[in-house]
């Protein structure tokens, strides 16, 4: 737990937005397929990757979510530091995105798509979803995939 002068550090919404813009990812993932091969669940995910575990621990303490190591020193390049990832999903990711939305610059377009996805999900929705909602979710998934595409 990170402390300064005996007090727990806090991350402001502005600072968190900057971290998401620089080191974060807002994405939509397909979670499960029905017997007919259709995806019946799309989920919002938010994560930040950084080599400073202390920073991510502060975020986890303040906003929830989970931490994990994603790359060790001896993977592709022995000069690289170990990287860690903080991740949250669903309603918690939505709540965080709403808090930081006014301060996002680079990933504001992705945040808009993420919030549109969450509008199609009702709390605890586990029953069958209409084809119209599935089509909307798939459209948002593809839009997010395009926004997150690497390269030119």
What are the key terms here?
two-stranded antiparallel sheet, 5 helices, alpha+beta, 4-stranded antiparallel beta sheet
User: What's the shape?
Assistant: globular
Distance between the termini: 40 Å
- N-to-C order of helices and strands: EEHEEHEEHHH
Q: Unreliable segments (pLDDT under 50, ≥5 consecutive)?
A: none
Q: Report mean pLDDT, rounded to a whole number.
A: 86
What is the strand tally? 6
What is the CA-atom radius of gyration, in angstroms? 17 Å
Number of helices: 5
What's the helical proportion of residues?
40-55%
Relative strand content: 25-35%
Describe the strand arrangement of the main beta sheet, using strand numbers. Answer: 3-4-6-5
Q: What does the main sheet amount to?
A: 4 strands, antiparallel
Structural class: alpha+beta
Write the layout of secondary structure elements.
Blueprint lengths: L2 E2 L2 E2 L4 H11 E10 L5 E12 L2 H11 L2 E6 L11 E7 H11 L7 H12 L11 H17 L5
Antiparallel strand pairs: 1-2, 3-4, 4-6, 5-6
Helix pairs in contact: 3-4, 4-5
What features would you describe in this structure?
The chain is of the alpha+beta class and 152 residues long. Helices cover 41% and strands 26% of the residues. The protein contains 5 helices and 6 strands, in the order ββαββαββααα. The strands form 2 sheets. The protein has a 4-stranded antiparallel beta sheet with strand order 3-4-6-5. Strands 1-2 form a two-stranded antiparallel ribbon. Strand 1 and strand 2 form a beta hairpin. Helix 3 crosses helix 4 and helix 4 runs antiparallel to helix 5. The longest helix is centred in the last third of the chain and has 17 residues, at 131-147.
């Amino acid at each position: 737990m990170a402390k300064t002068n005996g007090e727990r550090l806090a991350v402001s919404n502005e600072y968190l937005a900057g971290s998401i813009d620089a080191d974060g990812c807002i994405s939509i993932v397909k979670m499960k397929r029905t017997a007919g091969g259709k995806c019946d669940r799309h989920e919002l995910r938010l994560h930040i990757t950084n080599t400073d575990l202390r920073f991510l621990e502060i975020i986890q303490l303040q906003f929830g979510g989970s931490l994990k190591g994603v790359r060790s020193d001896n993977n592709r390049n022995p000069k690289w530091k170990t990287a860690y990832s903080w991740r949250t999903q669903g309603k918690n990711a939505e709540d965080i995105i709403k808090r930081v939305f006014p301060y996002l610059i680079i990933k504001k377009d992705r945040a808009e798509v993420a919030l549109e996805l969450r509008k199609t999900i009702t709390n605890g929705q586990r029953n069958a979803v209409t084809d119209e909602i599935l089509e909307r979710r798939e459209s948002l998934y593809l839009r997010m995939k395009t926004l997150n595409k690497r390269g030119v």
